[in-house]
Request: fold
Amino acid sequence: MRLKFEFILTKNQLPLDYRRIFISFFKKALENNDKNSKEKYYHNADPIKKAFTFSVLLDKPKFYKDYIELQGNKVILNFSTYSYEIGIDYYNSILKMLNYAYPLKNENYLILKNIVHIKDINIKQDTILIKTLSPILIRKHDRNSNFDAYITPFQENFTEEIRKNLKFNIEKLGLNNLKEEVDSFEFIDIGKGKEVKVLFYNHKILGSIGQYLIKGSPKLLDFILKAGIGSRTSSGFGMVEIEGVSK
Reply:
């Protein structure tokens, strides 16, 4: 399920760490609709894996030291999920937030004005060209030091790490039918991507954006397009769309 949420701001500004605003908006919507729904997806500080991703489209942003200035006051949030249950829960909850002035800092408000359903694409190919809508993060955790490093397609062993990441996500979601598909998955740099650093909860994280070629079974590629790829997908990372297909 894919949805497009259309917002306006009362001031044409957002903080640099703007993804946190929309995560908070999701939580508020779920809690207002049904407190059990919020607990199901955001149980205190427990890391509950969720099979969805989102990206935020800003209107010609200018980045300053402490904030982002937009040319206009419109903000688009693209939302995609592999789970029909998640799609219904989030849609029903966020629908009740229409025209609600969600308060931000500095007397600014985020107001949801419209929700659009986007038709899903059926994947039949085993090779597709993708474009990132939000940065892809691949987290490599060192158990000995309890430290997280983030790697990109331009570093060694990326294929191995992204496969590990995919398997971890699939296992956490209980999608055992997809586990065997990961071993043959390929993520190919075609010279149209780049590294970026993004701010998330006051930490700068290394990620990648651009166009890449991915190869795998159609059902695994379908999962990636609907649920996102990489780490922290439900926090606004790893959303991709199809740029082209190859037989």
